[in-house]
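Take just one protein record:
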Amino acid sequence: MVDFNNIIDFFEQSNIPENMLKRGQLVLNNFLKPIKILFEQKNVPKEPWSDDQIEFLLEILSNMDTDKDSQASRVGEREARIASRLHLKMSAGFCHGVGRSGFLTAPQPKAPGGSIMYEITNYLARNFLKNFGLPNINKAIVVPLCTGMSLALSLGALKPDIHSNKTKILVPQIEHRSILKAFDLMGFTQKVVEGKVFGDAVRIPIEDIRASLDSECFSVISLTSFFPPREHDDIKEISKFAKDNNLVHIIINAYGVQSPEWMKLIRSAIDAGRVDVIIQSTDKNFLTPVGGAVIASPDEEVITKISQAYPGRASAAPVVNFLISMLSLGINGYLKLIEQQQKNRNLLEEKLREVASKVNERVLEIFNPVAVAVSLENLKKEKLDALGGALYNLRVTGPRVYHSGESGESVFGTCCKYYPTPYIVMNAAIGAREEDIFSAVERFEKAYKQVAS
């Protein structure tokens, strides 16, 4: 076996000068050092790795899996057989995936390397969340599921005994289809607590949540990140309420990791009462392709239950994508992204205020560390519909245009019975560039004037 840390020992009798060998060993050791530290400490690195280092790590681990064993006699129904070598690239070589049929985090006999990769990734997920606002969590796992499916999996794992009559979930009004479909998928009844308008903001008073409790409720949901005018929930008080009433409390922190303000809310909620699960998207927070989530908890047993509830093996691709982000960003790289996100959020509000004053509109006064909403009170309904299309044609992606309901009609997405002000929402989320903000606001002004004329 070649010891790469002492590879020059094999060339002591060669014609290559000793000083050259030592220089080469120094470069190689410098390349390998972060990998050694990762295995020893299992923490997110402070500084980013190079792509070459990440690829080397993934190749070494994936080559430990049995599908790379040229001498193996493979007679199982699932042997990571592939039709094209492109599959190796798409999965980073981890064709066996992760987990076993009855336990997501269980070691996979055919995938020693994949099992190591997944264990390291889950350590990094916990370490990362501890570094960025949640020092009081004890375990986290990366799952190959979107936020809504992660919610469904968590509810399924933590549901009451099958003979229990507790089938209701208290839901502070959350008008997002993926969240609502998670409840339907698991067959639970939602008991929605309506949002109310306070100035420009939509909030769900904790008093209304308390008043909605009945004997059939077993869980309560709360959220941090959402689209204006909906603000975050009073998560700390909900956690106390959950503890007092023995309710499973799941926090949907979809894109909240990027916000120190939202993370602080979760941290205080864990300390004050009961928090069972915190769910965050990998693509919205960690700049990965769509398809993964990080499920965290202050209770290790809760994560074990969720892991055991996952049916079947799982794709390694979303897990690998998260690992790549952790290594390519590092702690310092993510700190820089957060700093840029905060600057972009301030810039977005500043520029939208300038445009709003020109067209006799206003920035709505709503707390949201990522998004900004602007009124569209001077546009009629048909003009509002045209605005979205005009922005799309101007190649602006992501804005949301809402009109107010007619005669008290509810409009899905506003999270309340009636929101009186039509508006547009734009985000300055993590990873956005300053030039995105400038160009999007400039094109918004152009589109507004175009449809208003």
Observations:
- The two ends are 75 Å apart (CA to CA).
- The longest strand covers residues 217-223.
- The chain has three domains: 1-41, 112-329, 333-452.
